[in-house]
Amino acid sequence: MDSGVADYLVWLEASRNLGHASIEAYRKDLEGFSAFLESEGVGHPVAIDVRFVRAWLHNLHGHGFSRTSVARKLSSLRGYLDWLCRRGVLPSNPAALVSTPKRGTRLPRHLHENEILPLVDELSALEDPSGRQDAALCILLYSTGMRVSELCSLETGDIQPYDDTIKVTGKGRKERVIPVGMAARKAVSRWLEVRGKAGRNAPLFVNARGTAMQPRSVRYRLARLVIRMAQARHISPHMLRHSFATHLLDHGADLRSVQELLGHASLSTTQIYTHLSKQRLREVYDACHPHAKKDGED
Question: Are residues 262 and 169 in the same domain?
Answer without folding.
Answer: yes
